């Protein structure tokens, strides 16, 4: 091998090594919240300090919804403020859509066209509708038209710990399987679903993604991946409601291959918005 070929090969190997290292450092947290939680102070009221805390933990991109979207009626203002707060940061804003309000279709259009959002976050149980509502069936093709991913939050917290005047049950996922089998191009990410919900309703749906924020048990992520495809599982911390470190520990305590870890850390999320 002459000197020129040696240098070219060495440079290529170094470049490949650097690229691999950069990919290994990627971490997309698909489930965080900004703003003021209506029930207690959690630490996401100041965007700059919250982003700094995520970056210190190795997060390179985070998908953020707005706590204010749970109970406020003027979601147009909520989404505008969220988009402004996320601008210039690692945060990807996830617009709130309340299907029980009039003209929600305009909010979808504003999210997509005015704010450049790629993700919508729904809270059906807080907004007073179920998945059999005509508006939900109308939303699916509209989101597909605008190339929007839907995140469906199944539950925000256990019913036993909720404020006694604002108690909501988890979203009933039963109707979702039939809808998604009819709309093969539609993609939905479930947030805060547990393993029993998935096995009962959505095991055979190939267009459903989920985070692991409420997947419990020792080796929970490892056990889930025995029956759930790695390319449809994403990293979701549910910060600041949950301590962020609990998500890291769920990954560390599970025996995952490098391919599985990379898929959960960032590849699955990147493929969704490609």
Automatic annotation (TrEMBL):
<dbReference type="Pfam" id="PF04909">
    <property type="entry name" value="Amidohydro_2"/>
</dbReference>
<feature type="domain" description="Amidohydrolase-related">
    <location>
        <begin position="41"/>
        <end position="240"/>
    </location>
</feature>
<dbReference type="InterPro" id="IPR032466">
    <property type="entry name" value="Metal_Hydrolase"/>
</dbReference>
<protein>
    <submittedName>
        <fullName>Amidohydrolase family protein</fullName>
    </submittedName>
</protein>
<dbReference type="InterPro" id="IPR006680">
    <property type="entry name" value="Amidohydro-rel"/>
</dbReference>
């Amino acid at each position: 091998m002459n000197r020129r070929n040696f240098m070219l090969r060495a440079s290529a190997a170094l470049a490949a090594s650097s690229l691999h290292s950069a990919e290994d450092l990627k971490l997309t947290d698909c489930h965080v919240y900004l703003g003021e939680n209506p029930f207690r102070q959690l630490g996401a009221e100041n965007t700059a300090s919250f982003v700094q805390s995520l970056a210190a933990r190795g997060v390179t991109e985070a998908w953020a919804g707005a706590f204010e979207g749970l109970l406020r009626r003027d979601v147009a203002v909520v989404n505008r403020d969220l988009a402004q707060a996320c601008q210039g940061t690692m945060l990807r804003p996830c617009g709130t859509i309340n299907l029980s309000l009039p003209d929600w279709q305009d909010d979808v259009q504003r999210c997509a066209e005015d704010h450049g959002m790629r993700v919508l976050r729904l809270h059906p149980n807080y907004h007073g509708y179920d998945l059999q509502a005509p508006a939900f069936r109308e939303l699916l093709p509209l989101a597909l038209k605008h190339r929007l991913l839907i995140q469906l939050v199944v539950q925000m917290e256990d019913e036993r710990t909720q404020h006694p005047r604002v108690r909501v049950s988890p979203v009933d996922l039963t109707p979702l399987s039939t809808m998604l089998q009819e709309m093969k191009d539609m993609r939905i990410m479930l947030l805060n679903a547990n393993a029993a919900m998935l096995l009962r309703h959505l095991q055979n749906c190939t267009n459903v993604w989920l985070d692991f924020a409420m997947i419990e048990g020792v080796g929970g992520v490892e056990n889930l991946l025995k029956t759930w495809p790695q390319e449809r599982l994403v990293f979701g911390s549910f910060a600041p409601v949950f301590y962020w470190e609990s998500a890291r520990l769920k990954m560390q305590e599970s025996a995952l291959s490098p391919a599985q870890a990379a898929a959960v850390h960032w590849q699955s999320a990147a493929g969704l918005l490609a």
